[in-house]
Specification:
Helix content is 44%, strand content 18%. It has 612 residues and is of the alpha+beta class. Helix 4 packs across helix 12, helix 9 packs antiparallel against helix 10 and helix 13 crosses helix 16.
């Protein structure tokens, strides 16, 4: 990596350009604060970087970018393919504001077949692909996985239960009674027949429905010849179900394994739909809305999407795009290296593939239209909120805090974040409150706010424009005190107190410097937004509280005894048969357990007989 920085004054790119190589690599443009504002890949670093500063830029985005550049860093790579992968990694690390950014980085779910077990199970799976057994997918959503698992259980009656549950059954469960499992746990099916059912299920997941039908037909004929008419009828019904399911799902036998990408744009906002086809069957679709700075071109957006999406997720052998993809061949080479098999990126297709691309574009247009309408509603609410709170400008970021506990037990504070695009769930935070008197909501709120805004001061996230506190004047005053102690200003504080009967629409809004609370009409867009944010904070807090409370109640009192680790606890429970027997045991009895010294036995006895 090399870096050339100019001394004070206007940025002069020429000394940097003259010293750059003609080899491939990645360049990073930095602003005056040293923040990376753009990452790019170049086949020829000198020519590419120089192109930004030769003459006057013709598009608004490049003009804005060049005007903010104060420094340039470059990294030379052995090949252009290596530069492409490095570009992805740097974009992911720095999230530059002039690059197109893909927000959704969630992993995709799969169907897992535990082929290492005598009686394999079919199960939902999300995680590393380096796992034992076979994985089929990826699927666009958890719902599509569960729907496919339901079909497979109806068709092939392969178990879906956990191994621990399977190993301890003494009679068939409900799944067997409703004909979704052949009950291998209690020996109601021979291992050989069960393995054939699993093999048929995997063949179906690969897309070879006709191969499964041929196998079942052969089995039906064999059963009929052996005069086993009930088994033949079972095969007949299975074939009918399979043909019905396959007829609903198969797009084209020649479709194979591919993703179809459709893109739509409106008002400089982009929507992208990816349709997943595996084994000639459509598994479903997922919508994406990349963040693109003003002036970004469709070519730039589609290239950035394919790079960032498939560098993070598995790429199928074929990727079809509704728009021409810049550097499609290079992207294919990079993905082929990553997947250890050939991957092609194409945009010119005919026949069935062209119809699939058209369907992806239609879905992208509909998803984008819905998102724009949703955003329009939120923008209207934000504008109304600015008016009623006299903010002077539309707020770009809202945060709301809520406290949840049961009689002071397991207190949890929540912080939820909303912006023009709706809830920012990746920015949500929970705080387990410690060292505060049970039931002291003011103290709990002070601790949560202090912990949150100390982190924000260190740059974890931007400060909000509006901070909503679930509570009245007292909670609002405590929040004001915390922000004052931290030296934070410029944040509008609002206390949201529930109305009479805790009914929605009767909330009172408390503000700093206003003696009387503000009551908004029930149909106010600003009130609707406040209610939505407040309710989300309450939901997030109570979910965390319940989880913490349950964890505390499930905790064994043995865990609180110093020196009594997991191994010794297991030895105690095995020796005495349960916790109650341990509680009743004397010191001598406890000391007879292997690994329990007399001193430790005395500590255990004292834990349960503090008054004796």
């Amino acid at each position: 990596m090399s870096r050339v920085q100019q001394p004070g004054g206007a940025f002069d790119p020429q000394p940097i350009v003259r010293n750059l190589t003609h080899r491939p690599g990645v360049y990073r443009m930095l602003d005056s604060d040293g923040a990376v504002i753009y990452v790019g890949k170049a086949r020829d670093l000198r020519r590419r970087v120089a192109s930004y500063f030769q003459g006057r830029a013709t598009d608004a985005k490049t003009m804005a970018l060049v005007a903010q550049v104060a420094d340039i860093e470059v990294t030379v790579t052995p090949t252009e393919t290596d530069a492409l992968m490095l570009e992805y990694n740097l974009i992911k690390e720095h999230r530059p504001r002039f690059n197109v950014m893909l927000r959704d980085d969630k992993s995709y779910p799969y169907i897992h077949v535990s082929t290492d077990h005598e009686f394999p199970r079919l199960a939902f799976y999300r995680g590393s692909r380096k796992t034992r057994g076979r994985l089929f997918g990826p699927y666009p959503s958890a719902n599509s996985v569960r729907a496919t698992l339901g079909q497979l259980q109806k068709l092939f009656q392969v178990r879906g239960c956990q191994d621990s549950y399977f190993a301890n059954r003494t009679r068939p469960c409900l799944q067997h009674q409703i004909h979704r499992c052949s009950a291998p746990c209690v020996g109601l099916i021979a291992p050989e027949q069960y393995q054939r059912d699993v093999a048929n299920a995997m063949l179906f997941l690969k897309g070879d429905s006709e191969g499964v039908v041929d196998r079942l037909m052969a089995g039906m004929e064999r059963a009929a010849n052996e005069l086993q008419y009930e088994r033949a009828a079972h095969y007949r019904d299975q074939i009918a179900k399979l043909k019905r399911v396959a007829g609903q799902q198969v797009v084209s036998r020649s479709a194979g394994e591919l993703d179809i990408i459709g893109m739509a744009a409106e008002r400089a906002v982009y929507g992208i739909t990816v349709i997943f086809v595996r084994g000639g069957r459509i598994l479903g679709s997922r919508n994406h809305f990349p963040r693109a700075s003003a002036g970004s071109s469709p070519d730039e957006v589609i290239r950035a999407f394919i790079l960032q999406h498939y560098a993070a997720h598995e790429a199928p052998p074929e990727i079809l795009s509704s728009h021409a993809v810049p550097e499609a061949e290079l992207l294919g080479e990079m993905l082929s290296e990553r997947m250890q098999r050939r991957v092609r990126v194409k945009s010119q297709v005919r026949g069935d593939r062209a119809r699939l691309v058209e369907m992806a574009v239609t879905n992208a247009e509909q998803a984008l239209a819905l998102r724009l309408r949703s955003n329009a509603t939120i923008n209207q609410q934000l504008e109304a909120l600015a008016d009623v709170l006299d903010l002077g400008e539309v707020p770009g970021r809202l945060e709301c805090f809520d406290i949840s506990h049961t009689g002071g037990e397991a207190t949890v504070a929540s912080c939820v974040v909303f912006a023009a695009e709706g809830p920012l769930k990746a920015d949500y935070r929970r705080f387990n409150i410690k060292g505060v008197e049970p039931g002291d909501d003011y103290g709990a709120m002070a601790q949560a706010l202090t912990r949150r805004y100390k982190r924000l001061q260190r740059g974890e996230a931007p400060l909000p424009d509006v901070l909503l506190i679930d509570g009245g004047a007292g909670q609002l005053a405590k929040a004001q005190q915390v922000l004052a102690e931290l030296g934070i200003d410029g944040v509008s504080l609002v206390g949201v107190a529930k109305g009479v009967g805790r009914k929605a629409g009767r909330e009172s809004l408390y503000r700093i410097g206003k003696r009387r609370p503000l009551s908004l009409p029930a149909n106010s867009p600003a009130l609707h937004l406040i209610q939505q944010v407040r309710d989300e904070a309450h939901r997030f807090a109570i979910t965390g509280h319940r989880a913490r409370r349950q964890k505390a109640r499930n905790r064994s009192p043995l865990e609180d005894i110093p020196g009594l680790g997991p191994k010794r606890r297991r030895a105690l429970l095995r020796q005495f048969g349960g916790l109650r027997a341990v509680q009743r045991a004397g010191v001598d009895d406890l000391a007879r357990v292997k690994g329990i010294s007399r001193t430790l036995a005395q500590s255990i006895y004292s834990r349960f007989h503090a008054d004796s």
